[in-house]
Amino acid sequence: MNISLNWLKDFVPITLPAKDYADILTGLGLEIAKIKHFSIPKGIVAALVLSVEKHPSADKLHVCSVSLGSGDSVQIVCGAPNVAAGLTVPCATIGTVMSPELTITKAKLRGVESFGMLCSERELTLSDDHSGLMILSGSIAPGTPLNQIYPNDSILELEITPNRGDCLSLLGVARELAAKLGVPLSFADIKVTQDPTMLCSPITVQLDAQACPRYMGRFIANVSIGPSPEWLKNRLSILGLRSINNVVDVTNYILFNFGHPMHAFDAQTIAGNHIAIKNADSVATFTTLDGIERKLVPEDLLIWDAEKPIALAGIMGGLNSSITQSTKNIFLECAYFDPVTVRKTSKRLGLSSDSSYRFERGVDPLEGLSRALDTAAELIRLTASGTIATDYIDCYPSALPVKSIALRTDYVNRLLGIVLSDTVVHTLISSLVGFTIQKDSIGHFTVIAPHYRHDITIEADLVEEIGRLYGYDTIPASEHGYLALAQPENKQEKKLDALKKALCGAGLAEIVCNSLVSVRTNQIITPDIKAVELLNPLNPDMAQLRTSLTPSMLSTIAYNLHRRNKNNRFFEIGRIFSATSDPIPAAERSILCIGLEGDATPASWAQERQPLTFHHAKGLLTSIGITADSGPFTFSNGNQKHGWYNSHAVVSGPCGITGHCGLVGTELVQFFDIKSPVYLIHLDITQWLKEQPAQKIFKGLDRYPSVERDFCFVIDQALPASTIADHIATLSPLICQVTPFDVYAGEKLGAGKKSIAYSVTLQSPVQTLTAKETEPLCDTIIQSLSKNFGATLRT
User: Fold this and answer.
1) What is the DSSP letter of 533?
2) 353, 409, 452, 698: least buried by Cβ within 10 Å?
3) Are 547 and 588 in contact, with CB atoms under 8 Å apart?
């Protein structure tokens, strides 16, 4: 936001250089991005264009005769398209120094002499408009120096944080300076002059929406729409605004003066002389002042007349009620709209205005509302010859609650790290405009904060105000620091770190992706899970919280493949979300997702490439489970095609770890534009992270030799090899390892049968095993498998 120091003089005395005020405001938390010094060069005067003729040798140039107020007329060659006889325009006379690189001299343009230069607003640094000459008021006498109309000024460009909507005006900045410097503050408002013969406003107002706590308005009759007076044009142009007409310019002036958006309706277009503030309901579209038809939703807040909507509340007026040259009566609106409602509509429509920018951050719903309305009405009376109705409309059905906050001196000192007395605390709070403070007891106060300070809600906010006014740069640096060396162990983070180290040690790279995805992505991956919707998404691709880590994993792999990065190995540990019923609106789960793409072993001179298979993914997960103490995992056959897997296995592990591991389906990889096979592991590790880490027990090296026995069993084709291995391992404490090493299926075995060979390692911690101990155990293995699984020993 830009502020003019000359304009700021209306509120507080300005006696210091612009740089000093910039430093003061920055210290108060209002950062100054830029200081621009403005001055009209000496030698630029108002000129009356007497005549305009075509240039004899150039189609786009004109030969103008202008009066500079004394003596004979001056000939100037001009290329501006809007030059015309009778206009009063700025003229840079001979010898005027426009810049270090440009001094106006006598010149000859295409054979015609020119004795000066007629200027646009950009050439005077008033704005960026270079479309034509700057048009001055006809009341300005030719020869008047322009620096008398536009005095030297300094423009400060402020960067206001979102919580300080009260500073989006000259009055808001003046409040800050008055509090810091202890100078008097003038509100620069004007008392309204009402016409006693015009007692009643013909407009009635009905307030139906909770999103508008207060709505005020004034009726002004017999206005004359025309150009604004020069002082008003100057005020707006110095801040970069283009003058439109006297009524619209007044509302813009009030916006920057008091920070309060206003809107003027053509009263003749208000059907039934009735205004209603209510939601859009069934209205589908609305055409705003810029001529664009906007699509509405039922929750959007509108200003209605008796038949139709006439404005988007707090954002922009409607084309059907705009001020035109034929407007005679106006209804001036000044309201307080709920910031959240305005923000939602503005973001959804992609429509941001000076009005919505301020309403989104909160405006003054009390005195500032009436002050802005009365000042605007009086200025319209003065600039447009209007007649103001005696009464005014004020719909304020429910008073806003008083913002009473307890403040303790010791709390102030503890947060700021300094020692302030009760007197200093009282003085600093009292200096804030609109704040009242009462001392309850020693070290205890009650502070009433004004409603325009929407950022003041708790005691810490008041401490921040004290810190700002006291000066953060005057708070001495502490000579002592306190550092807690003993930190409580976070067991969940410890387990998470161990898991990440194991994954990185296995050659995987970690990715961290956004939790927001599009509606379509969630529907493709998890059509049966209800996703959590964002109330106000930034764009359609970020409309829901993700219900799976699969989309982000496949998107990352696709991104790398498109940049010729092959053989990708990634993992992500993140959260997924699903919608639930109240009181808990969403459920969160911690997920480990691993994506494997490319070759298991790339081709080299010594060997051919070895493509990835399910067993590589299974082996990787088994290895990680051992390293990170998250295993052992078991793998059971899943459906041949489950969800977006072509084929997969159900994975289960300790502490409730569950998930899937398999080859991603063709349709899904094509959706992400991936042309190579991708194996994905998707595990829910929520409960595992909550459990205590497993206690590690040291076991010494075995002193006695082991004995190996091989068995070959014929079993049913559908029986997993791991089931047999797990069962064998439970038959005796002497069995320390069971490893399948061969599988065979053929006609000799019969239909539905297969043969699996196992190597069983036997070992005793107290002696060397002999045939006497091992043979009975081998018989037990054969008999148990025969009894429980119908397995037969193949010889």
Assistant:
1) B
2) 698
3) no
